Amino acid sequence: MDLKNKRVLVMGLGLHGGGLGVTRWLLKQGARVTVTDLKKADELKSTLDALGNVPQTAQLEFVLGEHREPDFENADLVVRNPGVPRESRYLQIARERGIPIRMELGLFTELLPRGMDQVIGITGTKGKTTTTLMTGAILKRANPKTVVAGNLRVSALELLDQIDADTPVVLEMSSFQLEEFQELKRSPHIAVLTNVYPDHLNRYRDMDEYAWAKAQIFLHQSPRDFVILNFDNPICTRLRPKAIGQVIWFSRTRALKDGALFERDWLVWNEQGKKQNVLPAADLIAGEHNIENALAAMAITHAWGAPLDVIAETLREFRGVPHRLELVRELNGVQYINDTTATAPTATIAALRTFAALKTLAPRGGKIYLIVGGYDKGLPYAEMAKTILETNARVILLDGNATEKIEQALTQANAAAQIIAHAKSLQQAVESGKNAARVGDIVLLSPGAASFGMFVNEFERGDKFREIVRAL
Q1: Does pTM surpass 0.90?
Q2: Which of 338, 361, 375, 400 fits 326 for a cystine, CB–CB 3.0-4.6 Å?
């Protein structure tokens, strides 16, 4: 793909790093780049600062605070940020003129030496980041050149120079990114769907549309490809008949005849009835959900050809992911846990169950002080409210338009008494937790909602939580 002197329009510079990496890469290719974003320069300051000084020879223009129709009429290529809805009227202008529209991962996979044949793609409502990083860690033992990218704040395009035909490429793929692969009719050689739960219902009409977006990861495979599915997730089992590739199941609760399963506190590989114990669950990072993540990673990497002993050794050493059930500090016998990437109630439920189980087994006992709330993604909170009551968690409500829904759900679950504070800021929320918690307790940031409004993104929220806790 020769982009030299081509007019490329980047739609959505954004604040997560995606538009930034695309822009840098396009400039290196000699493209004439226009970056357009509805946010103004002051709102995009962190991204603009990160872009730094571009070469004087670079042809770069910014159109900020607006989109201009002529930019979409005259481009040779439009690269849209995954956060931009595909129904945007500006994208329609480009479509009507036959101008190609891509996202970063679409461009990236087109430029790989073996295309999708060297790609492992991982999606799911929960667990996709941890599963991606577990998978990457295992494959790097066999092939240190393994590349891990995608929905991870790492620009895939900027890694192209490191990739040859033998390089395994592990991509975390969001439902937004998969919309492009529906249009391109392209799926990875190994496609993974960890699970599907309600999320992003402010973007999709209903759960069916959201699940269909997730399913794009495997719908365009061939019979020589592989699809890894969660037998315990009803939507995964419902989607199974649509699979063209060879299906490999994983399950935490079922005795599978083939695949990765959990039996008598061990991760087990079962191939045509021949079972091999791979790793005791006690050797994994804590949490039932991490058993599922490890089973998925085992199924993926074994399909790729990794030996079971290498899988076991790597999973034993895997220490988790920043911002996901991350212990920031223990102060005066109280643990402060950063789970900021819990942007949906299902993730908060998983966190509560993890720590409730640990407290039951540990002599420290104690309560969970849950900091919850933020921006509403159109999700239901009834199940989360029930789990709060079941785990006897104390609730600190953080300001946001989802917070009223959470409070209503708690009231309907007869759990309103669990609320101990309303906080206007994260600082105030942490201080409320600190003042209430005693030796053996946990202060847990697991918001169950997005961060927009109060923070740029969930990572900034997590960074701020770390900063506040370390300053206590």
Answers
A1: no
A2: 338
